[in-house]
Specification:
The chain is mostly beta strands. The chain has two domains: 247 residues, Jelly Rolls; 107 residues, Immunoglobulin-like. 2% of the residues lie in helices and 41% in strands. The strands form four sheets. A seven-stranded antiparallel beta sheet has the order 2-3-6-11-8-9-12, with no helix packed on it. It has a six-stranded antiparallel beta sheet with strand order 1-4-5-13-7-10, with no helix packed on it. Strands 15-16-20-19-18-21 form a six-stranded antiparallel barrel. A hairpin with a 6-residue loop joins strand 2 and strand 3. The chain is elongated and about 70 Å long.
Length: 372
């Protein structure tokens, strides 16, 4: 049988033989924090789907939304089964000038070097996704260069039926992305904005220095009615001028990519339980805690605790019941481990090795190493 040589001149080299999708969790199937959170609209935070942030401007905004990840509603053509759903639960028909509602993903510079932004060989970028709403609307997909405060925005239409959106952005020969683990690029989906962001002319033809008035011109107001809802899935950002099929990864691959930024431990459903980390008690109240990570973190994390963590074991009186941890500080991370300093109520014998546990069936902790 004859062998046919591939004409590589016809293939976009960047990402063609590796991961194409620059984004993570584009089908919203991973949600370590929660599947659904209500009452959103006043703060910028990660709430449900891993790697996807809600960005909300102006604390005085009266509109509210519910965000639900892993919704089992997706078009068959997308090759995925889950989507992100946003519901308007409190209307705001008169937006203040500084108000906005956006969801998006923040991307590390070292994951963008193949874009070659800021050079003569800079590449185009294409974003694609499937989307539907309850009625016709116009929203904005913006690429925002955090290293050089440059941006470009494109409008897209939404109807009450699933449709695929494909948008290509021109190359930008000005301003390189940093080659590090820090924030370089936002993909932002604007679904509401006040006049501070809509009073100019939409910057849609070429990258330009940030002018807020030009970022979301023509966007509909998602807060206009409590009937408004939005579903989105199969979100992909890739090099080149062609939107390819959404890249399917296995569940372990998707979870591992998300855990670079956020790792959750517990709850495990018993009254008290070890959560993993082991400590060395060097005074009656002070402990050095070492914990092997699921996957290396992006940067030194914050340790977030829900409920009360306890040190378990190592007591002077020989009992195994817990004593509350009162203070946690992160000291350092290694390639696959993290170290804390912990202050706990008196109870452990110096030289012992208590483990970190939960004080109830709902206690858990997480390492947060997100961008932004």
């Amino acid at each position: 049988m004859a062998l046919t040589k591939v004409d590589t001149s016809m293939v976009e080299s960047s990402g063609a033989f590796g991961r194409r999708n620059i984004l993570i969790n584009g089908d919203y199937s991973i949600y370590q924090r929660a599947q659904q959170v209500t009452g959103l609209g006043t703060a910028t935070e990660y709430y449900t789907a891993d790697r996807w942030q809600i960005l909300a401007g102006a604390s005085t905004v009266s509109g509210r939304v519910t965000m639900t990840a892993g919704t089992e509603d997706a078009p068959p053509e997308s090759n995925v089964t889950t989507s992100l759903k946003l519901d308007c639960t409190t209307a705001d028909t008169s937006l203040a000038a500084g108000e906005y509602l956006i969801f998006g993903q923040l991307i590390e510079g070292q994951n963008l070097q193949h874009v070659k932004k800021g050079t003569s060989g800079a590449k185009q970028l294409t974003v694609s996704f499937w989307i539907k709403g309850n009625a016709s609307a116009t929203y904005i997909a913006e690429l925002y260069d955090a290293d050089n405060t440059r941006q470009i925005s494109k409008t897209f239409a939404v109807t009450s039926s699933w449709s695929k959106v494909e948008i290509t952005y021109p190359a930008d020969t000005t301003g390189a992305f940093g080659n590090d683990a820090n924030l370089s690029l936002y993909l932002l989906i604007w679904i509401a904005a006040g006049s501070n962001y809509t009073s100019g002319t939409l910057n849609s033809s070429a990258w330009a220095a940030q002018t807020n008035a030009n970022r979301a011109v023509g966007v509909s107001n998602f807060y206009s009615s409590t009937n408004n809802e939005l579903y989105i899935t199969a979100v992909q950002l890739e090099v080149g001028d062609t939107a390819t099929e959404f890249e399917i990864l296995s569940y372990p691959e998707r979870l591992t990519l998300c855990q670079r930024y956020y790792q959750k431990f517990g709850p495990y459903g018993t009254n008290t339980f070890p959560l993993g980390p082991v400590s060395y008690c060097y005074t009656a109240t002070n402990h050095a805690v070492g914990h092997t990570l699921t996957t290396p973190l992006r940067a030194v994390p914050a340790v977030e605790v829900t409920g009360t963590l306890q040190m378990m074991g190592g007591r002077n009186d020989g009992n195994n019941y817990g004593y509350d941890i009162t203070t946690i500080s992160t000291v350092a991370i290694g390639n696959n481990s993290v170290m804390w300093n912990v202050v706990a109520n008196t109870g452990a014998a110096p030289g012992s090795s208590p483990v970190v546990g939960g004080g109830s069936s709902t206690t858990f902790f997480a390492y947060d190493s997100e961008l932004g």
